[in-house]
């Protein structure tokens, strides 16, 4: 049985395909269009899923859409929602000849299913939180075997996701994209405005919350933005985009981030008490806030937590498909998402052709061990190495398939990557990818605890911070990825090789892209980014490339990345 799951028309459009309850493929449309957070109908992503399964559109048994457009909130007319339904049906028919009926599911049902039904838990509490889906912003409930029951919800305009977007807007960044910049800024500031922020959001004893609407204004698809009252309350004007970031802005970010954490911890404590469950599944864009996630795990009373790597709208495509298979059809669960590698891969012929098309030269390693040794040596020498291997990741994190790698011992490498490679703000942090069996040696976390998707931020042990100087944030935390041989053998072996050279079982890992662009997908994407940034070497399949056809103009690259971000379509 083949079930196609779809999400689009908000942001992060995606498609996912199941075969007999097993995930076959999943990818965001942005990887093909090269427009970050692309929201359009995902015809490229659908076509990839069909190719990956080697089936035709007529082989599909069910199609599931991640929300109900005709039940969107009051900002969008119901008539427009009905037109969206028809548009999806029309495009499926036009592009793929698909005429069968579509199952339109609730937005937060898809979020919940996209976490619980692919989790390792037989039963768990579930919390979903994002900007808004239909009229709902936050839900909680339970999952048991193949059933999900959402028990209570919070409705628009009261939304912790939209609050964080309003905070992002106030700090001069673009909503639905730069919220994670704010999270990175937060640890550089002090929560001296916490009392003021608690006037913006009321946290209630029953776990719920409400926004003080005197301080917010509604604005089109963004839902809620800050009002001028913020400037009086916080003591400064809203920051204009691309202007200097002042100490006050870091304090605003810190205080706002702390409020988000407080809201989510309060909600999780209440859900833990009311459900009695020991495990928790989180979903929705707010679940990408790895700092809040760690506090939830530490403070709310749950023993374990699961968050899938594409827990935002893209992951709704997976959730919709699994909900139909498990909860609607009633098939037992048989799949656990243990890795994120569900997108396109490319053959050596594909890679060789792309290199030849650009007139570039590479060294091809027939021996995998020699390639790993050479790559580890370059990283240990202080080079920034682009790593392009296997299937691309599903979700916003690079997890060892489309990554930029560097030596985590070198604190100065952060400035190099942010300025000459990523063309982004200096405060942006980097993640440590650590051998799973060594993670508790370096982080204050239980032995055998896993964090495969970079969605938790434990404290780095004091005695290990020098070894992880480039990936330890200013507050002593690290956005950890644990790496296992079973889920990513080649990346695991590379880290082992680096450990044999340096004694450190970790590398700095950040996404292979520049500001304003999605993570690279194809060999051509990788070569273009390599040639136009300060990356020192590109390891792509069995090939090593170190020479570039022309001198890189870093200022031009920075201007280009800013223009991409400014012109990005949603």
What does this structure look like?
The chain has 570 residues and is α/β, with parallel strands linked by helices. The protein contains 18 helices and 22 strands. The protein has an eight-stranded mixed β-sheet, sandwiched between helices. A hairpin with a 2-residue loop joins strand 6 (123-133) and strand 7. Helix 4 (107-116) packs across helix 11 (316-328). It is globular, with a radius of gyration of 23 Å.
Short description:
The chain has about 575 residues and is an alpha/beta fold. About 35% of the residues lie in helices and about 20% in strands. The chain is globular, with a radius of gyration of 23 Å.
Low-confidence stretches: 74-78
Distance between the termini: 33 Å
The helix fraction, in percent, is: 25-40%
Number of strands: 22
Would you tell me the overall average pLDDT? 92
Please outline the major beta sheet: 8 strands, mixed
The percent range for strand residues is 15-25%
Spatial strand sequence of the major β-sheet:
15-22-21-16-17-20-18-19
How would you describe the shape?
A: globular
Number of helices: 18
Query: What structural class do helix, strand and pairing data support?
Result: alpha/beta
Radius of gyration: 23 Å
């Amino acid at each position: 049985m083949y079930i196609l799951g779809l999400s689009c028309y908000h942001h992060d459009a995606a498609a996912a395909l199941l075969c007999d309850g097993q995930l076959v493929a999943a990818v965001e449309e942005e990887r093909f269009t090269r427009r970050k957070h692309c929201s359009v109908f995902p015809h490229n992503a659908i076509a990839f899923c069909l190719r990956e399964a080697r089936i035709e559109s007529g082989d599909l048994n069910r199609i599931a859409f991640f929300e109900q457009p005709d039940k969107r909130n009051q900002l969008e007319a119901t008539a427009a929602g009905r037109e969206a339904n028809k548009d999806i049906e029309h495009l499926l028919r036009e592009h793929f000849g698909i005429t069968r009926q579509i199952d339109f599911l609730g937005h937060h049902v898809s979020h919940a299913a996209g976490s619980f039904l692919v989790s390792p838990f037989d039963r768990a509490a579930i919390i979903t939180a994002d900007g808004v889906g239909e009229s709902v912003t936050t839900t909680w409930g339970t999952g048991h075997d193949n059933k999900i029951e959402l028990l209570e919800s919070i409705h628009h305009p009261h939304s912790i996701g939209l609050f964080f977007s309003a905070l992002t807007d106030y700090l001069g960044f673009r909503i639905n994209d730069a919220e994670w910049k704010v999270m990175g800024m937060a640890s550089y500031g002090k929560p001296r405005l916490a009392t003021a922020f608690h006037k913006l959001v009321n946290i209630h004893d029953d776990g719920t919350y409400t926004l003080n609407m005197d301080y917010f204004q509604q604005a089109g698809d963004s839902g809620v933005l800050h009002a001028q009252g913020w400037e009086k309350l916080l003591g400064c004007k809203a920051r204009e985009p691309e202007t200097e970031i002042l100490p006050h802005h870091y304090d605003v970010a810190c205080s706002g981030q702390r409020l988000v954490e407080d809201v989510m911890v309060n909600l999780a404590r209440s859900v833990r008490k009311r459900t009695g469950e020991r495990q928790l599944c989180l979903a929705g864009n707010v679940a990408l806030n790895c700092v809040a996630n760690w506090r939830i795990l530490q403070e709310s009373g749950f023993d374990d937590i699961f968050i899938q790597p594409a827990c935002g709208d893209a992951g709704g495509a997976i959730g919709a498909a699994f909900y139909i298979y498990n909860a609607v059809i009633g098939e037992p669960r048989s799949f656990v998402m243990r890795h994120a590698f569900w997108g396109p891969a490319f053959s050596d012929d594909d890679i060789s052709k792309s290199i030849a098309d650009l007139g570039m030269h590479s060294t091809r390693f027939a021996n995998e061990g020699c390639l790993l040794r050479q790559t580890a040596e370059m990283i240990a020498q202080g080079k920034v190495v682009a790593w392009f291997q296997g299937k691309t990741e599903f979700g916003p994190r690079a997890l060892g398939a489309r990554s930029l790698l560097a030596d985590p011992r070198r604190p100065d490498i952060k400035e190099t990557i942010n300025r000459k490679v990523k063309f982004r703000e200096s405060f942006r942090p980097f993640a440590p990818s650590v051998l799973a069996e060594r993670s508790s040696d370096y982080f204050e976390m239980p032995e055998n605890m896993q964090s495969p998707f970079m969605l938790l931020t434990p404290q780095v042990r004091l005695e290990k911070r020098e070894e992880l100087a480039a990936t330890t944030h200013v507050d002593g935390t690290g956005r950890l990825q644990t790496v296992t041989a079973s889920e990513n053998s080649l990346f695991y072996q590379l880290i082992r090789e680096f450990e044999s050279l340096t004694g450190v079982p970790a590398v700095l890992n950040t996404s292979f892209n520049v500001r304003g662009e999605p993570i690279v997908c194809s060999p051509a994407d990788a070569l273009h980014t390599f040639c136009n940034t300060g990356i020192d070497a590109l390891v792509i399949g069995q090939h090593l490339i170190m020479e570039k056809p022309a001198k890189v103009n870093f200022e031009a690259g920075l201007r280009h990345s800013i223009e991409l971000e400014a012109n990005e379509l949603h």
